[in-house]
TrEMBL record:
It is an enzyme of class 2 (transferase). Its cofactor is pyridoxal 5'-phosphate. It holds the Pfam family Aminotran_1_2. The lineage of its organism: Bacteria, Bacillati, Bacillota, Bacilli, Lactobacillales. SUPFAM superfamilies: PLP-dependent transferases (SSF53383). Residues 31-386 form the Aminotransferase class I/classII large domain. Its EC number is 2.6.1.-. The keyword Transit peptide does not apply. It comes from Enterococcus columbae DSM 7374 = ATCC 51263. This is Aminotransferase. InterPro entries: Aminotransferase_I/II_large (IPR004839), AspAT/PAT-like (IPR050596), NHTrfase_class1_PyrdxlP-BS (IPR004838), PyrdxlP-dep_Trfase (IPR015424), PyrdxlP-dep_Trfase_major (IPR015421), PyrdxlP-dep_Trfase_small (IPR015422). Belongs to the class-I pyridoxal-phosphate-dependent aminotransferase family. It comes from the Bacteria. GO terms for molecular function: pyridoxal phosphate binding; transaminase activity. The keyword Lipid metabolism does not apply.
Length: 394
């Protein structure tokens, strides 16, 4: 049977594929070190685990919930937006989803018709372009300079705007670069989007993993007109070490959110009940674990940065957030005789047993993404192996 054209055209997730490859080699007994993962290496905090167990034992996790999510969690999201963003929403402007990833999926299904365009700044998180395509839309990539930390300006966006532009995705802090837009930069983009009636999709999933003197501002916080024109995507995966629980949320224009709820009702019915009760504890319970985990990531960032700079040809910018480095390896590739990062990454895995994600998955094939969401020993050993590999090949 022929699979649908949609599926034939779909690329599998590059990050998940890289992680799976490393796991497969590990299963063969090979000592593989993986810096591929996009998830905290901590167990979900105990208070959250306990809330989930209580929800199971009381029986309330046994049943379907509302498609939009349990009312207590939707209210907790409203309170979260008030407390962390200073923004007021009503419960009908919220939806709880199976991870932030499915919130994005529902959103594109809700707003896009055939050939509608979505502007995606490069480099971009792997799923944006594929999800836009699955919804019949066309991803249009906006480029910027590495010297500007890959942050797009209005001038960059104007180059790709067309009559078909329906939305723009702003992912700040960014996966893969770990860079944050300033309020001024966001204000300019927000005003441009409002003036051109382009919906802003603000993927704020890394908004609580910020380091040094840097601070987080969501584009939705920059005035009433921009807020009304923005759908905020967020979730508990990264902040609360809850990737496996699959809970995210979206907040914004009621008409759009209600469209998303309608699709959820005909697809997943509802996010897993027990996970919703766990997420309720995450958002409303003791917050001390959030800061404790953030501090560990920051320590790793500060230790890893100087080590990466010692690898021949690595051009490294110090990230401000998330748990990734997005390294320009074009010099390293030249030194070692590679055309693009994918074959470098492949040989590194097979010969030195270190797994990284090639930049190609993020739209840039002269880069690699290195995650430090793993224990320090693994990070340190991996860097030693990468350095030795490059020195051997050069
Ligand atoms: N957005 C970005 C930029 C991400 O990196 C991820 C996860 O890797 C997600 C969204 C999805 O997060 P989740 O579906 O686990 O909530």
């Amino acid at each position: 049977m022929n699979l649908s054209k949609k599926v034939q055209a779909l690329a599998p997730s590059a990050t998940l594929a890289a992680a799976a490859k490393a796991k497969a080699l590990k299963a063969q007994g090979i000592d593989v070190l993986s810096l591929t993962v996009g998830e905290p290496d901590f167990a979900t905090p105990e208070n959250i685990q306990k809330a989930a167990i209580a929800a199971i034992q009381s029986g309330k996790a046994s049943y379907y919930t509302q498609s939009a999510g349990i009312p207590e969690l939707r209210q907790a999201v409203v309170d979260y937006m008030q407390k962390n963003y200073g923004l007021t929403y009503n419960v009908n402007q919220t939806i709880i989803t199976d991870g932030a990833k499915f919130a994005l999926y529902l959103l594109f299904q809700t707003i896009l018709d055939e050939a509608d365009e979505v502007i995606i700044p490069l480099p971009y998180w792997v799923s944006y372009s594929e999800q836009v395509k699955l919804a019949g839309g066309v991803p249009v990539f906006a480029t910027s300079d590495e010297e500007d930390s890959f942050k797009v300006s209005v001038a960059d966006l104007e180059k790709v705007r067309s009559a078909k532009t329906k939305a723009i995705i702003i992912n700040s802090p960014s996966n893969p670069t770990g860079m944050i837009y300033s309020p001024e930069e966001l204000q300019a983009i927000g005003q441009w989007a409002v003036d051109n009636q382009i919906l802003i999709v603000a993927d704020d999933i890394y908004g609580r993993l910020i380091y040094g003197e840097h601070t987080f501002t969501s584009i939705a916080m920059l005035g009433e007109a921009i807020k009304d024109n923005t759908i905020v995507i967020n979730g508990v995966s990264k902040t609360y070490a809850m990737t496996g629980w699959r809970i995210g949320f979206a907040v914004g224009k009621e008409e759009i959110i209600q469209g998303m709820i309608k699709i959820a009702s005909q697809s997943t019915s509802n996010p897993t009940a027990v996970s919703q009760y766990a997420a309720l504890e995450a958002l409303t319970g003791d917050q001390s674990s959030v800061e404790a985990m953030r501090k560990v990531f920051e320590e790793r960032l500060n230790r890893l940065y100087p080590l990466l700079k010692e690898i021949p040809g690595f051009k490294v910018q110090k990230p401000q957030a998330c748990f990734y480095f997005f390294v320009n390896v074009s010099e390293t590739l030249k030194l070692c005789g590679y055309q693009e990062a994918s074959s470098f990454v492949e040989d590194l895995l097979n010969e030195a047993h270190v797994a990284l994600v090639t930049g190609a998955g993020f739209g840039m094939d002269q880069y690699v993404r290195i995650s430090y969401a793993t224990d320090w020993e693994t990070i340190e050993k991996s860097v030693q192996r990468i350095k030795a590999f490059v020195e051997r090949k050069a």
